Amino acid sequence: MDSWISAALLGVVEGLTEFLPISSTGHLILANSLLGLSGQKIATFDVIIQLGAILAVVVLYRRRFLGLVAPSLVQTDQDQSGLAEFAPPPSSQFAGIRGLFLLFLTSLPAALLGLASHDLIKSNLFGPISVAWALGAGAVVILIIETVRPKPRYASLDDITPLLALGIGCFQCLALWPGFSRSAATIMGGMVLGARRTMAAEYSFIAAVPIMIAASGLELVKNLGLFTSSDMMFLVTGFVVSFFSAWAAIKFFIALLGKTTLRPFAYYRLALAPLVLLFWSTGVN
């Protein structure tokens, strides 16, 4: 783990794909294969740079998260940082104990299923061929839902009900298939259940934080001892690049959804999936 260029490339891949409906896990598996990187240290490095992307959400939505843990401290004036679009309204219902409970409901199904099937998923689904099929399946789901386009009934995070939060959590279980995309699963699930597209995306970002921290924390506790001081530059480079890449991707994605649908991401997935199948079917590992 001595190439900061590889670390930066993986950080860019993670940051740009974590919150777009194209699967960061799938792209990291493909990128690691192309770079010839493998082993438990690289798998744990992927977890560390994932935390960099999570931190970008926490910083961008800092007032939302502050509203969850300390509602009385959230200022009601205009955000002077230029990020007012990521702040809650003064009378937010997605705050405090209620907001935390909604996030708990969303995280619960995938957490339980993930714990029960962790070893099975790791041994059978973490490979380029599986990722290719997941990319294609997710693309088909996106196109179907965008074509049917269920009528929105929930316009903002403050409209989320416990049943909606749990329903989105059930859809999030699809993300346990590497390549399907947690973002795609939760956004599509939200839209199917009546959420407006932009609201579903925003909730997808926020709901990613607890379940990704839990999953990443478990991996780090088990494997952080694999690293030495000589690995620090590699780790720090990937983490920092992932943070800034995710920051840019989130702002781009929110702006884009105000103008278009998710179909371009589905077309990208459909184009990528057969290329992956063709490339790796020739025996490249």
Automatic annotation (TrEMBL):
NCBIfam families reported for this sequence: PRK00281.1-4, undec_PP_bacA
Miscellaneous comment as given in the Swiss-Prot or TrEMBL entry: Bacitracin is thought to be involved in the inhibition of peptidoglycan synthesis by sequestering undecaprenyl diphosphate, thereby reducing the pool of lipid carrier available.
EC category name: hydrolase
GO MF annotation terms: undecaprenyl-diphosphatase activity
Protein name: Undecaprenyl-diphosphatase
PANTHER family in alphabetical order: UNDECAPRENYL-DIPHOSPHATASE (PTHR30622)
This protein's UniProt keywords: Antibiotic resistance, Cell membrane, Cell shape, Cell wall biogenesis/degradation, Hydrolase, Membrane, Peptidoglycan synthesis, Transmembrane, Transmembrane helix
Species name: Desulfocurvibacter africanus subsp. africanus str. Walvis Bay
Membrane disposition: Multi-pass membrane protein
Membrane-spanning segments: 42-61, 99-117, 129-148, 160-180, 200-221, 233-254, 266-284
GO cellular component entries: plasma membrane
